[in-house]
Amino acid sequence: MTREDCTAEALPTTDCTAPQPCENPPVARNFRDLSEAEILALAISLEEADGRIYADFADGLRESYPASAAVFDEMQKEEDGHRARLLDMYRAKFGEHIPLIRREDVKGFVQRTPVWLTRPLGLKVVRQQAEIMELETRRFYERAIDKITDASIRKLLGDLAATEREHYARAGELEKQYLTAQATQSEGDAEKRLFVLQIIQPGLAGLMDGSVSTLAPLFAAAFATHSSHDAFVVGLAASVGAGISMGFAEALSDDGSMTGRGRPLIRGIVCGLMTAVGGLGHTLPYLVADFRAATAIATVVVAIELGAISYIRSRYMDTPFLQATLQVVVGGVLVFLAGLLIGSA
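Given the sequence above, the corresponding structure tokens read:
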């Protein structure tokens, strides 16, 4: 169907000439539904994107960290070599036309934060991102091998997966050449960061949502009714509801097949439970019959919750403690004041 035909079908039978969309935009495809040609085309796209990101890393680090920039120059050359091998294989098997298929077109890939566009670039952030990229690409090749039946393609993908597994050793050689005063971070460090992605990150997101978002309905009910029982019922409902909502949202956001972020069910359970825990923490004090005493205890619990969130962000998310505290406290105070004003109106 041509664009003109599509537009014509979408137009009403009146004289209105404004074009309208023919159909809903396509959704991302499941990896298991890709053909061998599409898997190979996706591999080419991934290697090209990784190579360009490494080039941006090198450009961003060159002025302040010339030795580290040289490391990423070498890594970019390696990715270009991988892409060339994949291109040769694709042309030999499927011809010259390579379909456009990108990571965002396939379910299972996490959207990358474009840290490579930031100036100045932080060396620690860059190396962490590079390690996760290598692990993600390796997992892709390992899963792609299970889908491919052609022996020569399987061998190429296996070789590239092995190359990704050895990339840390290669990085070590590069750092010995260019960074004689610095040690290479091990693959175990990257696995630890993936644990942060699988457990800490969804748990922290849930804890933040539960601790902050439930403040308004809880304290609005408390100050509107001056009844501990009513405030407890509202807080309990808000906490459970938020936990269910956040759990589903996290589980449906990414299937984790390419990124190692873990099973969606586990992430959803972690996020949902921590959301409920965050809300229940300052709801349980309203089991105390005296309204004023319950509110005082709940306020102390809120302060402890916000402090815990700040510590976790500082400990695992590389956020300075004072900055994390300021961000969390400002948000919490605004939500608390909203509940107070609504409840007192």
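The radius of gyration is 26 Å. Try to locate this feature in the token string yourself.
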